[in-house]
Amino acid sequence: MKKIEMLNKELVNNEMEVEELDNVMVENGYYSILDDGVIEDIKKDKKVVYTDVKSGECEVVVNFEIVIDNGEDEVIDAFVMKVISVEKF
What span, in angstroms and rounded, lies between the C-alpha atoms of 82 and 24? Predict the structure, then answer.
């Protein structure tokens, strides 16, 4: 639970690209989602679930809103999000 509280303090109300969020989550012991081909679903759902490396369990949900979307000529993950909350899955 302390990990979620810490992530809330670090992430909530911050604007960042999905790669920046992923880097923070990987540094805190979660698997990266960048190689999974799930960016389109993440953008549609406006949330991403992270799996803990040690337990192998889906543990954290990061909810966000899209502040700046990618342009038609940009890659799909070229968007800026504002993190709304980090919750236990």
Answer: 14
